[in-house]
UniProtKB/TrEMBL annotation:
Name used for this protein in its record: [Pyruvate dehydrogenase [acetyl-transferring]]-phosphatase 1, mitochondrial
Gene3D superfamilies on file: PPM-type phosphatase domain
Family to which the UniProt record says this protein belongs: Belongs to the PP2C family.
Record's subunit section: Heterodimer of a catalytic (PDP1) and a regulatory (PDPR) subunit.
Substrates-to-products reaction catalysed: O-phospho-L-seryl-[pyruvate dehydrogenase E1 alpha subunit] + H2O = L-seryl-[pyruvate dehydrogenase E1 alpha subunit] + phosphate
UniProt EC number: 3.1.3.43
Chief subcellular location: mitochondrion
Native source species: Xyrichtys novacula (Pearly razorfish)
Role according to the record: Mitochondrial enzyme that catalyzes the dephosphorylation and concomitant reactivation of the alpha subunit of the E1 component of the pyruvate dehydrogenase complex (PDC), thereby stimulating the conversion of pyruvate into acetyl-CoA. Acts as a crucial regulator of T cell metabolism and function, with a particular focus on T-helper Th17.
Length: 432
């Protein structure tokens, strides 16, 4: 479960808590009674209700899965990460006091990722949750790459020119991000050259499209970064790579998928860029000391009437009954926006051509073997984010970013209440 929480300072300065909670699977080691919250209790109760008439032998097996409180805490804390942000970094005053994040896997390997980084060449902090499906490759790629695309999109023309000049001259590049990583988080070293070359091509195009002295617009920067990275993921898979491992990797990234919810916080300016069904919720402290939830993003799913209308409007009337079936895109995919997932974006001809020339391992992947039903007018899926802006106020205390699993388990008001009580009941002194 990736969780990121940010506490806002006097500007206000905020705490962000990002969380991703995946649905529980039947064969997890934490089937026993876990008292951390409803999410952990559900699998235990379901298992017992299905097997309560079994023999004593089955009951003894069930008891063998019951975990002690220290074991439960060990599982819940395994992927915790906490970071305290300096109030002044030598250049700017930060509105972010710190963040906490966590991941609780419901399958192996976990398909979700989380990232946090400070922008060094501009101002602001980036935090994101990436909810993967059909494998972890796409979410992993987003956790490594998306913040670089955003950071480059935010750079003024002159700084982009300095970057390109340094590469041309073979000089070391000034870093544009300071990452805040959990020890278990990692980068795909084999793909770094490929990733850098794609990023460089992007900033070269930005140089051509911008003028000296031009200051990027944050809204446009976030929009362009999301769309360009998804385009690069698609292009890299089509081109392939002479290196067999990289060829397989870029195809895995493209054929798997991931939603993304990213916050960019700079002083009082908070932007949320969301593509998919993750969610960002602001914790607001009222005058009486209680906390209320203010949702800053919209879920791109069948529960969103505007999204339903958007998708149906992008395809012929003849597909009205098939483009969304059983609350899923083409009856298969729950989020209506996502990175990767090229089987919902490419033409049938392109999919067949790429798969026929791909490595043998790819044909063993069940997610690449089929064309979605009623597949007539692609693309059906986009990674274009919906972007919202919020000017932070003194009563805005923290931000929670979480994947759909968190919000399906707990109502947003309950999440905000729990975090608010933690901050006011003993956790807050660690951040002051």
């Amino acid at each position: 479960m990736p969780v990121t929480s940010q506490l806002l300072r006097g500007l206000p300065r905020t705490k962000v808590l990002a969380s991703s909670l995946l649905p529980c699977q039947q064969h997890q080691s934490w089937l026993g009674p876990i008292t951390h919250g409803p999410a952990s209790k559900q699998p235990c109760h379901a298992w017992q209700s299905q097997h309560q008439s079994r023999s004593y032998q089955t009951a003894s097996v069930l008891r063998s899965y019951i975990l002690t409180p220290p074991q439960v805490n060990s599982i819940l804390k395994a992927n915790e990460y906490s970071f305290k942000v300096p109030e002044f970094d030598g250049k700017n005053v930060s509105s972010v006091m710190g963040f906490e994040s966590n991941q609780l896997p419901a399958n192996a390997p976990i398909e979700d990722r989380r990232s946090a980084a400070t922008c060094l060449q501009t101002r602001g902090m980036l935090l994101g949750v990436f909810d993967g499906h059909a494998g972890c490759a796409c979410a992993q790629a987003l956790s490594e790459r998306l913040f670089y695309y955003i950071a480059v999109s935010l750079l003024p023309h002159d700084t982009l020119c300095e970057l390109e000049a340094a590469v041309e001259a073979g000089r070391a590049l000034s870093p544009i991000l300071q990452w805040h990583k959990h020890p278990n988080d990692y980068f795909s070293r084999e793909a770094q050259t490929l990733y850098f070359n794609s990023l460089r091509t992007y900033w070269q195009e930005l140089i051509d499209l911008t003028s000296p002295g031009e200051v990027p617009d944050t809204h446009e920067a976030l929009l362009n970064a999301f769309k360009r990275l998804d385009s690069d993921i698609s292009l890299e898979a089509q081109v392939g790579d002479p290196n067999a491992f990289l060829h397989y990797w870029v195809l895995r990234v493209a054929f798997s998928g991931a939603t993304a919810c990213v916050a960019h916080i700079d002083g009082q300016d908070l932007y949320i860029a969301n593509a998919g069904d993750a969610r960002a919720v602001l914790g607001v402290q009222e005058e009486d000391g209680s906390f209320s939830a203010h949702t800053l993003s919209n879920d791109h799913s069948a529960q969103n009437d505007d999204e339903m209308a958007r998708i149906r409007g992008e395809h012929p009337p003849s597909e009205r009954k098939t483009v969304i079936r059983q609350d899923r895109l083409l009856g298969l995919l729950m989020p209506f926006r996502a990175f990767g997932d090229v089987k919902f974006k490419w033409s049938i001809e392109l999919q067949k051509r790429v798969l026929e020339s791909g490595p043998d391992q790819l044909h063993e992947n069940e997610h690449t073997k089929f064309i979605p039903p009623n597949y007539h007018t692609p693309p059906y899926l986009t990674a274009e984010p919906e972007i919202t802006y919020h000017k932070l106020r003194p009563q805005d205390r923290f931000l929670v970013i979480g994947s759909d699993g968190l919000w399906e388990t707990l109502h947003r008001q309950e999440v905000v209440r729990i975090v608010g009580e933690y901050l006011t009941g003993g956790g807050l002194e660690d951040w002051t």
